[in-house]
Write a structure and sequence with these properties.
This protein is an all-alpha fold. 63% of the residues lie in helices and 0% in strands. It folds into three domains: 103 residues, no CATH class; 64 residues, no CATH class; 94 residues, no CATH class. It starts with 7 loop residues before the first helix and ends with a helix. 24% of the residues are buried.
């Protein structure tokens, strides 16, 4: 499911190092301060100190530990950490990668020392965050995915598998359904009949009233404006202005303001006027 809405760049960079690391990036995530070096120094052997330091920098950089040990850590990161932990031969990291038990024990220690938690412990909070953002902003799944990753990093929740974060699309769909249900709930029976009537095809016509409203004017600009205003008057006649939409987030109403005029006027120079008119109808 994740591949259905993620860009190639998003999928490729999720929980992985992409390209070389510059000096600023190295200093930001792989620099070990005095407290870090004290923790690293608890471990015997060059390979353990180097491996521990690299895992610490990796979780800071990616928000997760590498599944395949440290094989994908950029060489510049290995060289940078090597000098800080006093290791003369960086090739010893290969031996560290072969000892899975040690690697996992170091991950648990890092999580405990630096306050990282596993995804199941933060999943409920993330779901609420995505739901609130989807409801108030109407953002697409890609934007919600990026926001969810940022939230996880900020809260020090270890990133889950990329498929799990497809929940961003699912929660967004649920928020959209809630929006529809909320709007429909305030529509009266009379308004509902008026709306259904717009789906009927008038005698002698090939399109419904709603279809006609959705087509852009094809006449000269002046006549197009007259036709557009006539359509606004017809829509106003549906009585939707009386709907109480205070429970709908303001940003979602703004999105409706921008979407509807484009379908009815289809004239760039008329967008401002149309937005004002439909803003009045929707509020």
């Amino acid at each position: 499911m994740a591949g259905e809405f993620l860009s190639e760049a998003q999928a490729a960079s999720y929980g992985r190092f992409v390209g070389p690391l510059g000096a600023a990036a190295l200093e930001r995530v792989f620099f070990l301060d005095d407290a870090d070096r004290e923790v690293v120094a608890r471990h015997r052997g060059d390979r353990n100190r180097l491996g521990f330091g690299l895992q610490l920098g990796t979780v800071r950089a990616l928000g997760t530990f590498l599944v395949d040990a440290l094989g994908d850590v950029p060489v510049e990161a290995v060289d940078y950490v090597e000098g800080q932990v006093g290791v003369a031969d960086p090739s010893c990291v290969k031996a560290y990668a072969e000892r899975e038990k040690t690697r996992l024990e170091h991950q648990w220690e890092i999580a405990r020392e630096y306050g990282f938690i596993d995804f199941p412990s933060g999943q409920a909070d993330l779901g609420r965050w995505i739901d609130d953002r989807a409801w108030t902003t109407g953002e697409g799944p890609r934007a919600l995915f990026d926001g969810a990753v940022s939230w996880l990093r900020r809260e020090r929740v270890l990133l889950p598998g990329i498929i799990v974060l497809a929940m961003a699309a699912q929660v967004r769909e649920a928020a959209a359904e809630r929006l529809y249900d909320t709007v429909v709930a305030v529509v009266t029976a009379e308004q509902e009949r008026a709306l259904v009537a717009t789906l009927e095809v008038p005698e002698g016509s090939r399109a419904s009233v709603l279809d006609a409203w959705g087509r852009g004017p094809r006449s000269a600009p002046g006549k197009s404006m007259i036709a557009a205003l006539s359509r606004v008057e017809q829509i106003a006649g549906l009585g939707m202005r009386q709907l109480d939409l205070r429970m709908v987030p303001a940003r979602r109403l703004v999105q409706l303001d921008r979407y509807v005029p484009g379908q009815i006027l289809n004239q760039k120079q008329s967008e401002t006027l149309a937005t004002e008119l439909f803003g009045a109808l929707l509020r």
